[in-house]
């Protein structure tokens, strides 16, 4: 029995519920699971197809004890949820797994067909039995993850200054080089295909307003109900701003977007600005006061009257 | 059968686009491989290799459509004169329905007429989906509801289908009567063969296209079509699901991975729920729009009182499955799913509707 399984079983004895993964997705990739019993937990796995950030389920499970298997990046979301008092730290048992990188499974399937067999031993990646270039199919966030634990030479981070191996990294560089006007035009082209499904919001662990989100309320009528470029732009302005200083860069918004809008370009840009302005990184310290959630009514600008 | 070579396809579409709006699947640049049906213009690329990420239902049910525009006009103001020519005054000040303000008129501007459209390169499951939607929306002169805007778009629509000779792991159209050889909803079917496509007219509309100069006679035999995964007994779900309705544990279990992102409904070719809303520009003019909506969202059933009869994700997921495999078959005589697999390929939580359907069939056997 793997060490992961026995750890989950130990935690289960305390909590009665653990969020983790089994290999029951298409082509044998990981799929999110809820384990309730030691027997159910026997199928638990962790590998590079465990892309989902399971902490998105925690706000809905508020009030009950729960264990959760988490990569280092997922753990940041949990920490931020605790810092925002959305999750009770005493109720959550985090089972951290060490991770070298995770795969952009969707990109692999787009290239090789849905359900194509993905085999990964941590260094060599094979699709349908053929070796493929690993860097091209690794999630871009993983390539510059600080918590990454390269197990093999092939899993080493790409040295800075080298040519991006990954289409997503290339796009990031292109975007950085754009003027403000070019960026606006770029986004309008991207937003033109937004179907306003709100998957970017629903998949985000920090967007826990969900069912009462102002992007859909009719009273007050903050945003129109139409599905078009202007509304999509408005919607992203709201979403991105509401995540200022709260986004942990987990990448789930972009992964969930069914039409491939590169939303992480926005999040990364804002995260960088927040770090510069407030010296704050979301999801690092559960005791921290997130800068934009700090409303001091005794401050200089308002005397509380 | 007639034959059209691959090289002649752009010319054929160009000829069609001279008299109709043509929609074809294309990989959008900078979209990480997203394939969507878009308005096609001569010179545009076409992707016939990949399955489209979203269905082509926009063609009959646009994501947002204008039902009509309206202007509030006041007696003697320049508005009523100017707009009266193209619009219809529905509420004059002396009628019973007159608004409170004396002299006020609402001038209605009808939506633009539906264009003549050619939908090129859908698969059999998507063509069939249009027929499944017709059962609800398109009943001109017959029994049942007829949605005038849907019906007008449908009237002007020609569907050219690309038959599937291969499939992927998400497809399950073979679970339905005709599988990949389904012809319903198609006007013309193209079968891929060496160097081009064999073409079969299904309706008069489609058959007429074969007389275009792009087609020639051919002795070739059509290729064998794809056989996908099969779930036995889907039609039995209509009887089974009502018995599972109150088993909320079941619905919680099958939907526990779901993050309620709604893609499975927005991407689905048969999902057709909408919201009707008014959007004003200033305080005089506005539009009444109809936009996509979905039962996976909390606000979908939220009542004005604040009460929500489907308070949790499990309640909402239950509705999705029941509407597709029980209510719609009962009311419209068609299963509201054609096995296209989009909800499976696109789900960020790896939730496979086929597992849920198998679990429901299994739960019924146990009882
Ligand atoms: S905005 Fe995107 S990257 Fe940031 S926390 Fe939410 S899902 Fe993760
Ligand atoms: S997930 Fe993508 S398509 Fe859906 S609302 Fe967000 S940006 Fe638009
Ligand atoms: S696509 Fe998947 S996660 Fe999204 S609402 Fe549907 S089942 Fe849930
Ligand atoms: S429910 Fe899924 S498989 Fe069925 S038609 Fe809709 S998207 Fe396709
Ligand atoms: S009720 Fe749900 S499943 Fe049925 S058509 Fe509407 S969105 Fe689709």
Describe the structure.
With 305 residues, chain A is of the alpha/beta class. Helices cover 32% and strands 10% of the residues of chain A. In chain A, strands 2-1-3-4 form a four-stranded mixed β-sheet. Chain A has a three-stranded antiparallel β-sheet with strand order 5-6-7, with no helix packed on it. In chain A, α6 (180-191) crosses α8. By secondary structure, chain B is an alpha+beta fold. In chain B, 28% of the residues lie in helices and 22% in strands. Chain B has eleven helices and 13 strands. Chain B has helices at 9-17, 78-84, 124-137, 148-155, 204-209, 237-244, 248-254, 263-266, 313-332, 342-346, 353-366, and strands at 2-5, 21-27, 35-40, 64-74, 88-91, 104-110, 117-122, 157-162, 188-193, 196-201, 216-217, 274-281, 285-292. In chain B, the strands form two sheets. Chain B has an eight-stranded mixed β-sheet with strand order 3-2-7-8-9-10-1-11. A five-stranded antiparallel β-sheet of chain B has the order 5-6-4-13-12. The longest helix of chain B has 20 residues, at 313-332. Mean pLDDT of chain B is 90; it is low at 76-100. Bound molecules: iron/sulfur cluster (5 copies). The site of one iron/sulfur cluster has 10 residues of chain B, from α9.
């Amino acid at each position: 029995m793997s060490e992961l399984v026995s750890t989950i079983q130990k935690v289960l004895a305390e909590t009665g519920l653990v969020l983790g993964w089994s290999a029951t997705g298409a082509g044998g990739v990981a799929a999110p699971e809820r384990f309730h019993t030691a027997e159910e937990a026997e199928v638990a796995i962790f590998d590079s197809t465990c892309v989902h950030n399971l902490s998105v389920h925690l706000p809905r499970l508020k009030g009950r004890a729960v264990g959760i298997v988490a990569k280092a990046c997922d753990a940041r979301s949990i920490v931020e949820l605790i810092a925002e008092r959305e999750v009770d730290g005493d109720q959550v048992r985090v089972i951290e797994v060490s991770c070298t990188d995770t795969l952009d499974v969707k990109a692999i399937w787009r290239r090789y067909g849905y359900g194509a067999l993905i085999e990964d031993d941590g260094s060599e990646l094979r699709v349908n039995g053929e070796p493929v270039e690993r860097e091209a199919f690794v999630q871009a966030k993983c390539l510059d993850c600080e918590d990454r634990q390269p197990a093999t030479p092939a899993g080493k981070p790409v040295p800075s200054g080298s040519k991006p191996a990954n289409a997503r990294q290339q796009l990031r560089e292109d975007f950085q080089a754009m003027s403000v006007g070019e960026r606006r035009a770029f986004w309008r082209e991207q937003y033109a295909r937004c179907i306003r499904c709100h998957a970017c919001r629903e998949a985000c662990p920090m967007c826990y307003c969900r069912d009462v989100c102002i992007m859909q309320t009719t009273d007050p009528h903050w945003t129109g109900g139409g599905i078009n470029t202007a509304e999509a732009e408005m919607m992203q302005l709201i979403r991105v701003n509401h995540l200022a200083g709260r986004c942990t860069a987990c990448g789930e918004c972009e992964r969930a977007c069914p039409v491939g809008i590169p939303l992480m370009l926005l999040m990364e840009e804002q995260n960088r600005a927040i770090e510069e302005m407030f010296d704050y990184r979301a999801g690092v310290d559960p005791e921290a006061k997130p800068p934009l959630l700090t409303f001091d009514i005794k401050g200089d600008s308002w005397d509380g009257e | 059968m007639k034959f059209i070579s691959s090289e002649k396809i752009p010319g054929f579409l160009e000829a069609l686009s001279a008299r109709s709006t043509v929609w074809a699947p294309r990989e959008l640049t900078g979209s990480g491989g997203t394939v969507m049906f878009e308005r096609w213009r001569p010179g545009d690329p076409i992707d016939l290799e990949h399955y489209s990420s979203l269905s082509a239902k926009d063609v009959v049910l646009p994501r947002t459509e204008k039902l009509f525009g309206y202007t509030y006009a006041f007696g003697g103001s320049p508005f009523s004169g100017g707009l009266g020519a193209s619009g219809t005054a529905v509420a004059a000040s002396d009628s019973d329905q007159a608004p409170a303000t004396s002299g006020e008129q609402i001038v209605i501007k009808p939506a633009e007429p539906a264009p003549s459209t050619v939908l090129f390169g859908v698969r059999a499951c998507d063509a069939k989906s249009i027929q499944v939607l017709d059962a609800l929306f398109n009943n001109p002169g017959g029994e049942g509801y007829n949605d005038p805007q849907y019906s007008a778009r449908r009237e002007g629509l020609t569907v050219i289908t690309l038959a599937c000779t291969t499939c992927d792991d998400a497809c399950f159209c073979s679970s339905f009567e005709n599988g990949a050889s389904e012809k319903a909803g198609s006007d013309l079917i193209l079968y891929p063969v060496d160097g081009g496509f064999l073409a079969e007219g299904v309706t008069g509309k489609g058959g007429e296209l074969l007389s275009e100069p792009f087609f020639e006679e051919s002795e070739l035999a059509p290729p064998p079509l794809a056989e996908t995964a099969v779930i036995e007994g889907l039609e039995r779900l209509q009887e089974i699901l009502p018995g599972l309705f109150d088993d909320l544990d079941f619905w919680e279990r099958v939907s526990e991975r779901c993050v309620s992102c709604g893609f499975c409904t927005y991407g689905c070719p048969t999902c057709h729920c909408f919201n009707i809303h008014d959007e004003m520009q200033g305080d005089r003019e506005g539009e009444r729009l109809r936009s996509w909506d979905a039962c996976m969202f909390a606000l979908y059933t939220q009542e004005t009182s604040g009460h929500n009869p489907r308070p949790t994700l499990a309640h909402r997921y239950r509705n999705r499955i029941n509407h597709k495999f029980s209510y719609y078959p009962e009311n419209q005589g068609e299963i509201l799913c054609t096995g296209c697999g989009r909800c499976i390929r696109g789900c960020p939580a790896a939730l496979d509707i086929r597992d849920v359907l198998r679990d429901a069939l299994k739960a019924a056997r146990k009882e």
